[in-house]
């Protein structure tokens, strides 16, 4: 016990020295033990807050997962989506009246500022909260890597242009993933996040219509009728489960739904039903694999989350540890 404690201390010291010596290369590698010395309670705090929020509302697990995705795709995983202010990312089209969970992050940050002030970045809180959101929904455990720094400003146009839309073709969604260092497989694996959570009618009602000629032929007719009932006459804010068969459970059912035309968004069903080309045959084969093999899905999902969680800040941006997740620190 005593021995291993001392050798770990030695290791931490030498890592610090190494960073000082090699100042050119910044010490920005993410690690799973980043706060083991500076704030070992971080796991308990995030876990308790996410658990409490999901007991109130199970959907919050999904919302926190999406928050992390929308953070990482714009200027890297830097907590920039959390920044308030008129030109914030949270007011970009894909986020406004859509992304949820900001209050949960605030509550976690408040606890952590009491426990170890100025230590844990908002971006790391979001990454960890997403991990527990997946886990408490019944999904896989994966080691969340930590050590991110918070960005100094938001990038609203980056959010408008960089985040995928459910209305665009799969090939163009793949391009957006490629732009941040992810690939076609990551698109299929991470779309499996839609095994939990909800989407608003405005985002899929173009697939519905009473006139059979223009209804989406890749949407199951009974499911279409039910969605039509839900969406008709509302303001577009009514929500349907992204996974019609197990809305709040993180499982492989999302892929199984796609085999029977029960994906909710055009971009979900397109992974299985798009016209054959190179990309479509790749995504279709992967959908088939994951609909069969939940263990493969779980382990690939963890790996792709770690990959997505490692999208870096733009070159030259050093970041900071924000004190309040909604505003940059005063200089
Ligand atoms: C592949 C491209 C993707 C598209 C086009 C897409 C699109 C969408 C849309 C339109 C919604 C509903 C938003 C609303 O109702 O306002 C949604 C919800 C959601 N998305 Fe995605 N998404 C994609 C990928 C991802 C990824 C990579 C993740 C996470 C790893 C993710 C996680 C979620 C979750 C969990 C929800 C439900 C959120 C909640 O209920 O609060 N999505 N997505
Ligand atoms: C905003 O995001 C876009 C697209 O991701 C990127 O090209 C641009 O450099 C970013 N702008 C700033 C100021 O970071
Ligand atoms: C949906 O709700 C938001 C926020 O409550 C509101 O601003 C918006 O107008 C609603 N959407 C429609 C189509 O009415």
Can you walk me through this structure?
The chain is mainly alpha-helical and 331 residues long. It has two domains: 29-162, Orthogonal Bundle (Peroxidase, domain 1); 170-308, Peroxidase, domain 2. Helices cover 48% and strands 2% of the residues. The chain is built from 13 helices and two strands; from the N terminus they run ααααααααβαβαααα. The chain has helices spanning 2-21, 42-56, 60-72, 102-115, 122-136, 156-162, 170-179, 184-191, 221-231, 253-259, 266-273, 278-292, 294-308, and strands at 198-200, 239-241. Strands 1-2 form a two-stranded antiparallel ribbon. The model is unreliable at 1-26 (pLDDT under 50). Bound molecules: protoporphyrin IX containing FE and 2-acetamido-2-deoxy-beta-D-glucopyranose (NAG) (2 copies). Residues 74-75, 155, 158, 161-162, 314 line the site of one 2-acetamido-2-deoxy-beta-D-glucopyranose (NAG).
In short:
The protein has 331 residues and is an all-alpha fold. The protein contains 13 helices and two strands, in the order ααααααααβαβαααα. The protein has helices at residues 2-21, 42-56, 60-72, 102-115, 122-136, 156-162, 170-179, 184-191, 221-231, 253-259, 266-273, 278-292, 294-308; strands spanning 198-200, 239-241.
């Amino acid at each position: 016990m005593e021995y291993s404690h001392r050798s770990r201390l030695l290791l931490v010291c030498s890592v610090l020295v190494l960073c000082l010596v090699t100042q050119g290369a910044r010490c920005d590698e993410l690690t799973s033990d980043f706060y083991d010395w500076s704030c070992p309670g971080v796991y308990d705090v995030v876990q308790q807050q996410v658990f409490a929020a999901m007991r109130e509302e199970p959907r919050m697990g999904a919302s926190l997962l999406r928050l992390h995705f929308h953070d990482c795709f714009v200027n890297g995983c830097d907590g920039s989506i959390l920044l308030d202010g008129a030109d914030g990312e949270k007011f970009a089209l894909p986020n406004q009246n859509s992304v949820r969970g900001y209050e949960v992050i605030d509550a976690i940050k408040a606890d952590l500022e009491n426990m170890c002030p100025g230590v844990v970045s908002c971006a790391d809180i979001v990454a960890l909260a997403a991990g527990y959101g997946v886990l408490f929904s019944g999904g896989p455990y994966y080691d969340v890597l930590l050590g991110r720094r918070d960005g100094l400003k938001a990038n609203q146009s980056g959010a408008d242009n960089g985040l995928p839309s459910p209305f665009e073709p799969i090939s163009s969604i793949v391009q957006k993933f490629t732009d941040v260092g992810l690939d076609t497989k990551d698109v299929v694996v991470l779309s499996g996040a839609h095994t939990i959570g909800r989407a608003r009618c405005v985002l899929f009602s173009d697939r519905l219509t009473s006139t059979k000629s223009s209804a989406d032929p890749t949407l199951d007719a009974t499911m279409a009728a039910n969605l039509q009932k839900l969406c008709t006459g509302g303001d577009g804010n009514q929500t349907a489960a992204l996974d019609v068969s197990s809305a709040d459970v993180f499982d492989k059912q999302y892929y199984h739904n796609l085999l029977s035309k029960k994906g909710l968004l055009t971009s979900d069903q397109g992974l299985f039903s798009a016209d054959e080309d190179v990309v479509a045959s790749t995504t279709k084969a992967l959908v088939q694999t994951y609909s069969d093999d939940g263990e493969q899905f779980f382990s690939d999902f963890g790996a792709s989350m770690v990959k997505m969680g490692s999208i870096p800040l733009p070159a030259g941006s050093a970041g900071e540890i924000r004190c309040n997740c909604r505003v940059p620190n005063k200089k």
